[in-house]
Amino acid sequence: MSYELEYFHPRIKEEINCWPKSILADYKRLAWLLMEFGPNLRMPHSKAMGHGLFELRARGKEGIGRAFYCYVKDKQIVILHAFIKKTQATPNRELVVAKKRMNEIK
Length: 106
Fold this sequence. Notes:
YaeB-like fold, alpha+beta, 5-stranded mixed beta sheet
């Protein structure tokens, strides 16, 4: 793998592991692709949210999961925040949490 994946806090990984099975399976597949392809991973798997923030777009029969991430240094990716999406639009409060965490580590 080309890139290293880590979590802003262990709690984020624990929350993701509690996602419904089909969403979790897709997340794990996408995380592997992200480590393999890094910034070359694009839509529909990953979306740039602006200012160095990206979202990993997991889907499953139970719904949609999102994980915000950023690149820190060299080939290091940090998962900043994750949630199960319940509305069409990404809730602003979820973006605020991810941006705040990104600013903390950069």
